[in-house]
Amino acid sequence: MTKFATLTAVIGLSATSALAGGYVAPVVEPEPIIVEEEPASSNAGLVVPALLLLGVVAAVAADDDDS
After folding, report:
1. Is 22 left (phi over 0), alpha (psi -120 to 50) or beta?
2. DSSP 8-state symbol, 9
3. Residue pLDDT tens, the chain, 67 long
4. DSSP state of 20
């Protein structure tokens, strides 16, 4: 009877580790791609020359040449 109890205990202890489960691949969820959009702004490439041209026109118009 003790041999049977010992055999049962050994089989029981070894069976729990053998039936613990198999390899399960980890699930990796992809991170969402965030695209940052730049806010619409005025084009400084056109504003600065336009202001300079306006200044030159104002300076020529204000020039009093009474010769």
Report:
1. beta
2. H
3. 888 889 888 887 776 554 556 778 889 999 989 888 877 665 667 888 888 999 999 888 887 666 5
4. S
CA distance 34 to 22: 37
Q: Where do the domains of the chain lie?
A: 1-64
* Residue 38, both tokens: 């730049």
Q: How far is CA 13 from CA 9, 16, 17, 21, in A?
A: 6, 6, 7, 15
Alpha-carbon span 65 to 67, nearest angstrom: 6
**Residue 6 identity (one-letter amino acid):** T
